[in-house]
Amino acid sequence: MSLLEAVVGLGDDALVLGQRLSEWCGKSPWLEEDLAMANTALDFLGRARLLYGYAEALGGCDEDAYAFQRDARDFTNLLIYELPCADFASACARQFLVDAFDALHLERLSESADAELAGIAAKAHKEALYHHRRSVAWLVRLGDGTAESRCRMQKALADVWGYHAELFAPVEAEADLIAKGVLPDRAALRPQWLAAVTATLDEATLAPPGADGRIDGGRQGQHTEHLSPMLAEMQHLHRSHPGARW
Amino acid sequence: MPLFEVFVRPRRGLQHQHAGSLRAEDAELALQYAREIYTRRREGVSLWVVRSSDITASQEDDAPAFFDPADDKPYRDATYYALPKEVKGL
Amino acid sequence: MAEAANELRDAEARFDQRIKRDERVEPKDWMPDGYRRTLIRQISQHAHSEVIGMQPEGSWITRAPSLKRKLILLAKVQDEGGHGLYLYSAAETLGASRDEMIDALQEGRAKYSSIFNYPALTWADIGAIGWLVDSAAIVNQIPLQRCSYGPYARAMVRICKEESFHQRQGYDIMLTLARGTAAQKAMAQDALDRWWWPTLMMFGPPDAESVHTSQSFAWKIKRHSNDELRQKFIDQAVPQAEVLGLAIPDPDLAWDEASGHYRIGPIDWDEFQRVVAGDGPCNRQRLAHHRRVREDGAWVREAVEAHAAKARARGARVGVEGAPDAAV
Lengths: 246, 90, 328
Fold this sequence. Notes:
The structure holds three protein chains of three kinds. Chain A has ten helices and no strands. By secondary structure, chain A is mainly α. Chain B has a domain at about 1-55: Ubiquitin-like (UB roll) (Roll), CATH 3.10.20.520. Helix content of chain B is about 20%, strand content about 20%. Chain B is built from two helices and three strands. Chain B has a three-stranded antiparallel β-sheet with strand order 2-1-3, covered by helices on one side. In chain C, a hairpin with a 4-residue loop joins strand 1 (about 255) and strand 2. Chain C is globular, with a radius of gyration of 22 Å. The N and C termini of chain C lie far apart (about 45 Å). The interface between A and C is large, with 48 and 44 residues.
């Protein structure tokens, strides 16, 4: 895998989650939470732009070509980011798992041998620490709230859990970049992530989801069925006017 | 959900100032919401949140007794004291 | 009894003097019931408008045609939520709770600006809403920064400051479309055609027919008439449309040298009344969405309340308390 491909993959992660989060605008449980959700979405979308911008500098295409002119098979985001949210609990469950991952992953990535990537990661890491604080608090509130909220949270965790393994799954093509110190070894982050996640689940009085599923393929463009409809909505207008400026 | 008042320190070196209010169930959530709502445009470097019900406020009826007595103490202002023009540095 | 009557008279006199001297009325002050009711009605209506107004634009966030536009639109719609919140807070200082105000909205007892009952059909509508609707809102809101009620006036100061980017981004979209492909330009003209008249209606009925106006003037809640504000908006929008190279959909529109104003053709007030009464293209959809969101959030509200109650019962300190320099 080239550095360019790696950067685009990270950009896709951020874009796809940013898009999912932006779907919440005007739909959060109350007004204050709606503003908070939008801030999180803005952080991820902003991160996507930085990464695509770097990809362009590395010889790739421009940010809108990445976002709007590729089909699902060309997207290389990890699957966990593209899952739709059935309810607020499922948004919180996914966010909690990926924020805990980001808090670790982006810290390592900010030490990348590639200075540009390290700089983007350092900025994103600050955001991730705040997101993580927020999502931990939500997990605990909903887990240790009412019987209904615990039940919803437990189900949401079970639904998303199978996708967490891909966050740490070694991708053969990344080995070279890991060896050069450009990308962190994601697999090595899992024990620390699991310890942090388990501690929060415990505080939230939630049972750790059972078996470790392992669903992956995102980095190879093998997606769930959820990505394509999301892209159809996102890309429709842009693609309807080829060559237009917006 | 209870009402909280939000105080923002705009810059280091300035005191916290009342910015507005919001609703949140607990102080941690109130603090996060204060950050999301009242510092979207780099308005602050530090935040306080306090339950509105914890504020004791003077009432309009108190105003004459509380504040009018200060009106007749002009001798607390520097401008009360006339100085000869040639005096500098006071 | 006589003493109570005297006290009331004194309080009224103090209030009237305060208004006369152009001083701000603050939450703990005595105020006439009518003043309080008028403000609660107006501020909550304003808050509802901000929140309902998130819907037409919000539906385009996921479809924005570029990443830059997506971020700008999301930030803008988020701001509107923030403005709703500032306004609900201002109304709450008058003793109305946010829940009560939202009940009134959902039960149809409270209104919101009728403009949001029109649909955002194309991307150009996002430009037209920002340019026209936000400009009109700002023309309305600038004088409200001097409204006699302090919390409302302060909310307006903050809102006007934040909204200046809203109209600019709208105009920027229109400018880009107007200078874009033929299809884009047609899209922009179509949006202007559909939003122009409803925007003029935003300022409310003509002065001769306006119900609440005279008392609001006396209380210095309102400082300019509907027609004055409408004219101010028209005078600034017409030259802006010329720069865009778009045509305002009014055959009677003409510059009147004598008065120094643009004159417009007749506004269809029947349409306005129909939409206010509930028969705009989107009234039902807007309220249904608002109800659905509140219902979907009910279990979350219950959960946070239950969690906070448990935390209190455990005597746990929630969050980082203490403002160490408060006493300094």
